[in-house]
Amino acid sequence: MEKKIAEAREEVQEAEEEAKKAVDLRVEFYKDYKETELNNLRKRNDEIDSKLDKLRDTTDDTNSVANANIQSAIDELREEQRKIENRISEVENIEAKDWSNAYSIIEDAISRINTQIDLLESSLNDE
Question: Is the pTM of this model over 0.85?
């Protein structure tokens, strides 16, 4: 029986470590997501800038009908760029959640489990 109690304590310790690792991974996920999303948005924004420059250069060499079509394309790209800039602002304002209370919740739960194991061990020793 002592062996089973020792195994239970080991399992509890492993579970605690895994739970804390999961919390750490969650924090890293927020950081990685934010960085990746910002990089993708900024890259797209740069692509639009490049397209806008090319379209502006083209307007000088075309007739009025083509210029109207080019201006329409420029307006659409500017609208997309505005949406991207808004999304960049949103992503920049993403705050990683404070998970410090998760650690204390884990500690409390592990403590309660260990208390129950102690009570079980004590009752078995009394028999």
Answer: no
